[in-house]
Design brief:
Helices cover 45% and strands 14% of the residues. By secondary structure, it is α/β, with parallel strands linked by helices. The site of uridine-5'-diphosphate-xylopyranose has 19 residues, from helix 9. Uridine-5'-diphosphate-xylopyranose (UDX) binds next to helix 9.
Length: 444
């Protein structure tokens, strides 16, 4: 099958590489000529396990190519996927300008039946806007041409995106008629062999499913962070509470890990966008606003503990382990590490940071500044620092040599933003261990 994908970002590239892998011919269009050249040489502009290899093999097999030529791209694919960004506006609403621009571009070159597939995360009603944008351009051209618009939201997790695409939990297809629905079934056939994972629904329900799923996951996290804050005050250990709660299959163990807040390109943006969408209909979304507010405060948790411990952070240096918003990615969007570093700097403190892959990304964001030292190893971050803070639970941070760490730090203080470490072990080594909601265990 011939597939065209607009937007060579995260979703676009993973989708392109995985469709090419199963034998399709995929063309990716991007307006950024430099990015297109980099991709055509087989280099992925961000870190995602397994993606580099898939891109290279797709290109070498002649099944994947990158272009800035929209006319060529619209001619190529029966399937025209839109996978461009929908950044949040000031009021939390999703900015649809890039999605609608792609819709107009497709319409400008449309001269045969095409199914236009919206993969970007968009508010309910976007498919209608895409349809209007396409019709308008076709009318200006004086052309009458059949096409369909479907919603096909993406549920990839960064760091595990290739696996998620190859083995999806579900393939949501929002289509209002049979023809595009059947075409979508054929498109996903290779990923739908053993169990039928296609859930066919109307377009609006598909659009809402994506927002609702992300908002539900974010809600679970904020709920647990609230429980952790209560646990701390009543002298309980949230890690025991979590296990006790999770063993009820109606609750489950996934996404109930308390921490220093959720980040990333999806949860913060989608919770706000869903709340905004609700308000636009005249409905006040009380739960969604609270999910966001709890997360906002949780991202300040470690900083509050640091202030309480040191009194003032002026002149203090904090060793920071983990910069990416979660392990296995170099994505720093809405990362809790950023809030923490910025708060330390605002107090006159400094940071020595290490992350297995997000150092370059951090350099791009903050440049050279005297209060940020990016170092080559987790141990080096601790050299001469007043305390250690763990923000991202990367595997290499899971079993450190605490005796060595203790000898490198000025004070044996550890702020554990992901409840990664055993409070008893640290206590035996003489550490002051601040964790999330573990008052019962971390007290010295
Ligand atoms: C998420 C959704 O999982 C995915 O389905 C959707 O397509 C995009 O958004 P992603 O942003 O890649 O994926 O990361 P995810 O693994 O879901 O983690 C999001 C954030 O929640 C991270 O900051 C993580 O640290 C945090 N988190 C996750 C917790 O704090 N506790 C948990 O129990 C789980």
């Amino acid at each position: 099958m011939n597939i065209t994908i607009f937007g060579s970002g995260y979703v676009g590239l993973v989708t392109a590489a995985c469709f090419a892998e199963v034998g399709n011919h995929v063309v990716c269009v991007d307006v950024d000529a430099r990015k297109v050249a980099t991709l055509q040489s087989g280099k992925c502009p961000f870190y995602e396990p397994g993606l580099d290899g898939l891109l290279t093999s797709g290109i070498e097999a002649g099944r994947l190519r990158f272009t800035t030529d929209a006319a060529d791209a619209v001619r190529h694919g029966t399937y025209q996927l839109i996978a461009v960004g929908t950044p949040p506006g000031e009021d939390g609403s999703a900015d649809l300008q890039y999605v609608l621009q792609v819709a107009r571009t497709i319409a400008a070159h449309l001269d045969d039946y095409r199914v236009i597939i919206n993969k970007s995360t968009v508010p309910v009603g976007t498919a209608d806007k895409v349809r209007s944008a396409v019709s308008e351009v076709l009318a200006q051209r004086g052309v009458s041409q059949d096409y369909d618009v479907v919603s096909n939201p993406e549920f990839l997790k960064e760091g595990a995106a290739v696996g998620d695409f190859r083995k999806p939990d579900r393939i949501i297809v929002g289509a209002d008629t049979d023809r595009p629905a059947e075409l979508m079934r054929s498109l996903y056939e290779p990923f739908n062999r053993n169990h039928d994972r296609v859930l066919l629904m109307d377009v609006r329900s598909a659009e809402l499913t994506k927002y609702a799923a992300n908002a539900m996951l974010a809600t679970k996290i904020s709920f647990m962070n609230e429980v952790a804050n209560i646990a701390e005050r009543v002298g309980a250990d949230v890690e025991l509470v979590r296990r006790g709660m999770g063993s009820d299959p109606r609750i489950g163990f996934h996404f109930i890990y308390p921490g220093c807040g959720y980040g990333g390109s999806c949860f913060p943006k989608d919770v706000k966008a869903l709340a905004h969408l609700a308000r636009e209909t005249g409905f006040a979304p009380r739960l969604l606003d609270s999910v966001e507010a709890v997360n906002h405060d949780q991202k300040r948790f470690l900083h509050a503990k640091m202030r309480a411990h040191f009194g003032s952070l002026a002149g203090r240096t904090i060793a920071l382990w983990g910069l990416a918003f979660k392990p296995n990615t170099d994505d720093m969007r809405e990362a809790p590490s950023r809030e923490l570093m910025e708060a330390i700097w605002a107090d006159g403190g400094a940071v020595r940071a290490y992350d297995p892959v997000a150092m370059e990304e951090t350099r791009k964001i903050y440049g050279d500044r005297p209060d940020l030292t990016l170092v080559e190893s987790a141990e080096e971050a601790c050299e001469g620092a007043d305390a250690l803070a763990l923000v991202t639970e990367w595997k290499p941070f899971q079993s450190p040599n605490f005796e060595l760490i203790a000898s490198l730090l000025k004070e044996k203080v550890l702020f554990d933003g992901r409840n990664l470490y055993n409070p008893e072990t640290l206590r035996d080594l003489g550490f002051r261990h601040y964790a999330i909601g573990r008052a019962a265990r971390v007290a010295v």
